[in-house]
Each structure stands twice: as structure tokens, then as C-alpha cells.
Specification:
This protein has 217 residues and is α/β, with parallel strands linked by helices. The protein is built from nine helices and six strands, in the order E-H-H-H-H-H-E-H-E-H-E-H-E-E-H. It has a six-stranded parallel sheet, sandwiched between helices. Helix 8 links the parallel strand 4 and strand 5. Bound molecules: 1,6-di-O-phosphono-beta-D-glucopyranose (B16) and magnesium ion (MG). The site of 1,6-di-O-phosphono-beta-D-glucopyranose (B16) has 20 residues, from helix 3. 1,6-di-O-phosphono-beta-D-glucopyranose (B16) binds next to helix 3. Its cofactor is Mg(2+).
């Protein structure tokens, strides 16, 4: 049976959290706010606007709307410099193997990411051609855990939500997949992602037999 497989980007296909961290840390420090790796963890899967709001809340700072807009674009410019140096070596282990296996089984594949930079990143790591549909921060109005991003992905693939499987590294993303009535597969820490139907540390643990069972279900 043809199923829809929807991949989150940051933290699932590539580890861009380290670049978000560098850019957010510079921004926070310029405002006199400290910013730790633990705080960066809490921004995974969170939109750019909400991320800056959270940093300002942590630093107990209020700024004008103009400054907010300026800081967001400065952060993104710095992030884009890091992204511009990415290549296929930054794809997380065994992601290409799983994508190629799904393609060999004629399954439908989509991207479902909160990032407005998703297309640039997919191009840099040379994976764009693997996706039949790309839904990202430029297509959605509601952030995860709202299921909008995955529901649009299913629609673009022409597969009903209950026949879709989502790979996600963030709690909000797993919740979004569950709300969408899709199978949720957490990539990361099982304790953090306990709401997912299945959790794997990374794609090296996802065997062909497991994929075959998802396809046949
Ligand atoms: P951008 P995902 C998310 O991507 C990131 O996890 C999150 O840290 C970031 O703030 C968000 O994209 C927006 O990214 O600033 O590039 O639009 O995990 O949903 O693929
Ligand atoms: Mg993610």
C-alpha cells in the first residue's frame, strides 16, 4: 500500500540546531541576555518569531516592534551564513538509506518543517529531488503542535492522514502528528518523546523490516 512519509527537517534530516544556537546566542548576548544550550533545546521545532519572544521573556526584556523585526532578520542573516557552508556530509546518519528504501518501495515522501529556510537547506545537502511535496514555514500559518504543516503535506501527497507516518525530533512535532491522526516516530530521546508511537535514537536503528510493516499496515 502507498503510505505518506513526512519528514521534519531540523533535527531529523540535518542538525541545524547548532547553527540556530550560535545565531541566537549572539543576538541574546548583544541584548545582555545569557543563552544556554539547554535553552536552545527548548527552541527546537519552535517558529522564529516565538523563539525570539521566548528569549526576550527569559531575559525579562521588552523591545519595540521595529527592533523585534530587525533582530529577527539579523539573526536569520547570520544563520544563513552558516547554512551557506552546508553540504551533503551534514545529512544525519542513514537518512539517505531510509529515503532511498522508501523510494524503491514507491512510497510518497514529503517534508514538514517549521523552517522558512527549509528549501535552501535541502538544496545545500542535495536532497530536494527526494521529496514529492515540501511544506515549510513559508506555507503554514499555525506552528506545531498545530497539525497544519503535516495535514498540508498529506494533502499535497494525496494520501489520507491516517495513512501517513511522521518523523519528528521535537515534542511539539510529535504532538502535531498525533493530533493529525498520523503514526508518529520520534527521533531522539525516548523519555522526552514519550508521546510518540515509536522512538529511535537515529535512523541507523530503523530497519527495512520496520518500514515494511509500516507500509503493509
Ligand atoms: P527558521 P523544524 C525548526 O525547524 C527548528 O527546529 C527551529 O529551531 C526553528 O526556530 C524553526 O524551524 C524556524 O526556522 O528560522 O529557519 O525559519 O525542526 O520544524 O524543521
Ligand atoms: Mg525538528
Amino acid at each position: 500500500m502507498k503510505k505518506g512519509f513526512i519528514f521534519d527537517l531540523d533535527g531529523v534530516i540535518v542538525d541545524t540546531a547548532k547553527y540556530h544556537f550560535l545565531a541566537w546566542q549572539n543576538l541574546a548576548n548583544s541584548l545582555g541576555i545569557s543563552f544556554s544550550e539547554e535553552q536552545n533545546e527548548q527552541l527546537k521545532g519552535v517558529s522564529r518569531i516565538r523563539s525570539l519572544e521566548k528569549i526576550l521573556e527569559w531575559g525579562n526584556k521588552t523591545i519595540s516592534e521595529e527592533e523585534f523585526t530587525r533582530l529577527m532578520s539579523e539573526k536569520n542573516e547570520e544563520y544563513l551564513v552558516y547554512i551557506s557552508k552546508m553540504d551533503a556530509s551534514e545529512i544525519l546518519p542513514d537518512v539517505p538509506r531510509v529515503l532511498d528504501y522508501l523510494m524503491s518501495k514507491e512510497q510518497a515522501i514529503a517534508l514538514g518543517s517549521a523552517s522558512k529556510n527549509a528549501r535552501v537547506i535541502l538544496d545545500k545537502v542535495d536532497l530536494t529531488a527526494k521529496f514529492q511535496a515540501i511544506v515549510d514555514g513559508t506555507n503554514v500559518s499555525k506552528a506545531k503542535p498545530d497539525p497544519e504543516v503535516f495535514l498540508i503535506g498529506a494533502k499535497e501527497l494525496g494520501i489520507s492522514p491516517e495513512n501517513c507516518v511522521v518523523f519528528e525530533d521535537s515534542v511539539a512535532g510529535v504532538q502535531a502528528a498525533n493530533i493529525a491522526n498520523m503514526i508518529s516516530i520520534g527521533i531522539g530521546d525516548a523519555k522526552v518523546l514519550h508521546e510518540a508511537d515509536y522512538v529511535f535514537n537515529d535512523f541507523t536503528e530503523i530497519k527495512e523490516e520496520f518500514i515494511n510493516n509500516l507500509v503493509a499496515a
